[in-house]
Amino acid sequence: MSIVAGRGDTDPLLGGASRAQGPEKKQGYDGFTAYPAVSKTPVATSVPYKRNEWTANIDGPIVAALTLLCAFTRLYQIGKRATVTWDESHFGKFGAYYINRTFYHDVHPPLAKMLIGLSEYLAGHNGTFTFKGQYPPYVNYTFMRCFTAMFGIGLVPLAYLTCLQLNMQRMVCVLAALFVVFDNGLCVMSRFVLLDEPLLLFTAASLCSIAGFQNIRHRAFSCAWWRWLLLTGSSLGLVSSSKWVGFLAVALVGLYTIEELFNMYVDFMPQRIAARHFAARALALIVVPLVIYMTCFKIHFIILNRSGPGDATMPPMFQARLKGSALSRQPFAV
Questions:
Q1: How many CB atoms lie within 10 A of CB 183?
Q2: Is residue 69 within a helix (H) or strand (E), and if so which, with residue range?
Q3: Assign residue 76 a region: left if phi > 0, alpha if psi is -120 to 50, beta otherwise?
Q4: What value does the mean pLDDT of the chain take?
Q5: Dihedral sign from CA coordinates of 187, 188, 189, 194
Q6: pLDDT at 30 over 60
Q7: In whole angstroms, what is the distance from residue 149 CA to residue 74 CA?
Q8: For the whole model, what pTM was predicted?
Q9: How far from the centroid of its chain's Cα atoms is residue 212's Cα?
Q10: At a CB cut-off of 8 Å and minimum separation 6, what does 93 contact?
């Protein structure tokens, strides 16, 4: 068997065969071609690629109907049980600390607990109830539970929008939102005064924002690009300020950002443009979350300015500045 090739027109990757003619076809008894010729004519697709986009007259009514359905599952007879239930006895006390302005110590960041304290303040709680047994008449526990349920209801439009950003079909987006609506665990947690629903809402917002940013990445430094990037950073700041487990969302976005910047490096992007991309992400995904995180703690320490059960966990200089602390009546260096 011989192979005919032009002079200087051989390809070593093909065993010295000619690029123009290719190797002689090796055929078996059934006519199978071992080295089929590659066609240089581009293959035309019948359906052009197109991303899903938000359409107000289509997606708006769908999201509204799904949200109303979710609100029914979360709010129906939410105040029927008038006793402190499950972890309400634990997290409800944190809200009372903010109302009484007494210092406490907890392992988690304070944002979600401050939101619970806000709901108790709006519900008429005066800080004397210890969250054991029956709710007293002056505490509108139904309002407190509805306040927390709003975070659970917000998961449904975020689930739909996230799937839409991931370019799923609208029927799949509806199915994903229905999974959230009828999930028994999410429904139960939304009906009580717990920290989980704010955490889940901010986590879902982080995922939705980074998906939106991924879709708009080709329009770098546009208004929409900055909007999605800053929304991602703000969501990361909120979720990391609610519970330590929220830093898993930070890790997810961080790994995505590292991969994105690495791809820019290997694609030999001009250094000036790459530096702008790096600075924008450092501002939105590091500085903004840190500012939100530290602001939450600043508000936390401003409110809790009286001596409380968490004094012993803090240094003496901090305890001396708390109202009613025994150390505040002793001399200390300034």
A1: 15
A2: helix 56-75
A3: beta
A4: 86
A5: positive
A6: no
A7: 6
A8: 0.82
A9: 12
A10: 130, 131
Amino acid making up residue 228 = W
Give CA separation, 160 vs 146, 234, 301, in Å.
Answer: 22, 20, 37
The helix (H) or strand (E) run that includes residue 172 is helix 170-182
| The two structure tokens encoding residue 52 | 């899903």
Residue 20 has pLDDT above 70, yes or no: no
% of the chain at pLDDT higher than 90:
68
CA of residue 250 relative to chain centroid, distance? 8
Q: Which two tokens stand for residue 280?
A: 């924008």
How far apart, in Å, are the Cα atoms of 170 and each of 54, 65, 173, 176, 299?
Answer: 10, 14, 5, 10, 42
**Section 103-114 average pLDDT:** 93
> Residue 62 has which token pair?
């769908």
* 143-162 average pLDDT score: 97
User: End-to-end alpha-carbon separation of the chain, Å?
Assistant: 97
Residue with tokens 């370019």: 167
